[in-house]
Fold this sequence. Notes:
By secondary structure, the protein is α+β, with helices and mostly antiparallel strands. Helix 6 packs antiparallel against helix 7. The site of adenosine-5'-diphosphate has 20 residues, from helix 1 and helix 2. Belongs to the GHMP kinase family. IspE subfamily. It comes from Yimella lutea.
Amino acid sequence: xxxxxxxxxxxxxxxxxxxxxxxxxxxxxxxxxxxxxxxxxxxxxxxxxxxxxxxxxxxxxxxxxxxxxxxxxxxxxxxxxxxxxxxxxxxxxxxxxxxxxxxxxxxxxxxxxxxxxxxxxxxxxxxxxxxxxxxxxxxxxxxxxxxxxxxxxxxxxxxxxxxxxxxxxxxxxxxxxxxxxxxxxxxxxxxxxxxxxxxxxxxxxxxxxxxxxxxxxxxxxxxxxxxxxxxxxxxxxxxxxxxxxxxxxxxxxxxxxxxxxxxxxxxxxxxxxxxxxxxxxxxxxxxxxxxxxxxxxxxxxxxxxxxx
Length: 308
Ligand SMILES: C[C@@](CO)(OP(=O)(O)O)[C@H](O)COP(=O)(O)OP(=O)(O)OC[C@H]1O[C@@H](n2ccc(N)nc2=O)[C@H](O)[C@@H]1O
Ligand SMILES: Nc1ncnc2c1ncn2[C@@H]1O[C@H](COP(=O)(O)OP(=O)(O)O)[C@@H](O)[C@H]1O
């Protein structure tokens, strides 16, 4: 086993589901989805260096909420590749975390996607795109999209992807909560709320796809939808006030991001986003407020470290 360079740094984006259609739970415990993923320029940065022993350090505002052992999704990727590939071995990993933890923005998936690219390059494994996708799908349903980035239709568990044509750039404000929501708990709440109802299979989101092609943020705002929103609000009722406040403060549209509890607000432009950040911060309906634009590329190498 020999690393080809002293270190590799990869950056990976957060996502918001612009629409999230959820079908009835299947025998494997997963729900069939029809979702449009959208990557935004709120990113985590993962650096790997060859090491004699496994190490993981997390920095940034959410560091204390992220595991550093084998349950860290990025470490899981690195350890899997070390087990499976003769050329790969232990690494010292640093995760600089800006994506909220358990926020419905795929932060753990972003780190896992970054680790796939970083370990491949560090040990020159020469994995194919298909190898990347298969490993990503195995780690988690959101990981394949984070590798791809941009805006994409996700079906199956959310891991079957097709790119969606978009025009222009969209400005978002995200209202964050200190407490996270567990993804399995939100899906379980969706099942509980729908007990006795016939949940249809999710349909292709044609209105959303047309809105993205138009490039008009007002049209996009009208097409936002999330079948998990009711469940997320049921588990965290204060999110309804966050949504109402952001809309009253001028957001074009609002949606719980994935399984929540982050709320995503779509704004007319950058100036409107900055105004909304001020309004949301002053109202106290979020523990933190950040802005980001999309679409953004998927996980990418930002530097090959040449000196140790
Ligand atoms: C809800 C979504 C929307 O994009 O993301 P988040 O908002 O959590 O980031 C995803 O479906 C989350 O994807 P991800 O967090 O990668 O899920 P996984 O680790 O594969 O699965 C965790 C658990 O979520 C549930 N799950 C996940 C995906 C899916 N299509 N149906 C499900 O029921 C299952 O209970 C599963 O055991
Ligand atoms: N690299 C990682 N970053 C964040 N959380 C991680 C990571 N690896 C494992 N986890 C675990 O996964 C859980 C969900 O994390 P995250 O991906 O941020 O949430 P979500 O699925 O809501 O987007 C966390 O509570 C944490 O225990």
